[in-house]
Amino acid sequence: MPEFKTLRYEIADHTLTLTMNRPERLNAFNSLMQREFLEALDHADSDDEIRVVIVTGEGRGFCAGADLEKGAETFDYDSQTDEAKTERASNEGRQEGDNAWLRDGGGLLSLRLYEFNKPIIAAINGPAVGVGVTMTLPMDIRLASTAARIGFVFSRRGIVPEACSSYFLPRVVGVSKALEWAYSGKVFDAEEALEGGLVRSIHEPEDLMPAAQAIASEIAANTSAISVTMIRHMMWRMLGADHPMEAHKVDSRGIFHLGQGADAHEGVVSFLEKRAPDFTLKTSEDMPEFFPWWDERHFE
Questions:
Q1: Do the domains 7-219 and 224-300 sit in the same CATH topology, yes or no?
Q2: Is the domain defined by 7-219 classed in CATH 3.90.226.10?
Q3: pTM: predicted TM-score of the whole model, two decimal places
Q4: Tens of pLDDT, residues 131-152
Q5: By C-alpha distance, which of 171, 177, 172, 152 is closest to 162?
Q6: CA distance 131 to 64
Q7: Which residues of 72-90 are buried (b: 16+ CB within 10 A; e: fewer)?
Q8: Neighbouring-strand partners of residue 8
Q9: Would strands 187-189 and 120-124 be described as parallel, antiparallel, or unpaired?
Q10: Which of 54, 184, 218, 223 has the fewest CB atoms within 10 Å, counting from its CB?
């Protein structure tokens, strides 16, 4: 099992809990956390024992956003030395051309979350500001504690929304609410997040993780891993489709290929026999031959 300095990586009942673990900084996001997140997601994607991931924060914060320990130069990448730029590009592990160093670290995380093959639940236990909330947008289900405070504060820091949030946020809450929150940069409570459609539900602090774990268990105990992976990519990627025919193409191929498999047989037979299913196919080995069906995008 991998070990990290800024994250806890814990597996139980086919669920990985990733806990951001810098409580003394309200789990502020830095380059090490970004790198460790990418590594943790790579490990989780390759481990067939993990069916669902829950992301939360240690202590009273979820993630307070970018670590501002560099002060006024926090976001001034061009002021970094050549050595720092080289290290930044290398550490982010996505070198594509001479300008790899200028890539937004939160965006690299969001893109990896978007490519992830398993359901991801955000259990927002406290303040989630800046990248602390934008990182949750490519996650599938968001729950909040009554202690959560959320802010898309970029306009108040003189920068722009990052972590691909101009793509994800309008798709999650609609463009009007996305613009209101991004324009104002205000910090708001869990009730407003619920009313705006950002979170599924609000829980007392002691009830947050049990609620997230119950959702994870419902998925892990009752579903086919390859079905869930297909569903995740179908739902997210069809948000950008220009016609329902694109969905029909993937639906049809999916039914054709998965319908021949052991999990489809087991799903029907277990239902008819009124017993729990025993699905055996693995995401790492048994995805249909046309998966993935999309073209990879590159940073230019």
A1: no
A2: yes
A3: 0.91
A4: 999 999 999 999 999 999 999 9
A5: 152
A6: 8
A7: eeebeeeebeeeebeebbe
A8: 19
A9: unpaired
A10: 218
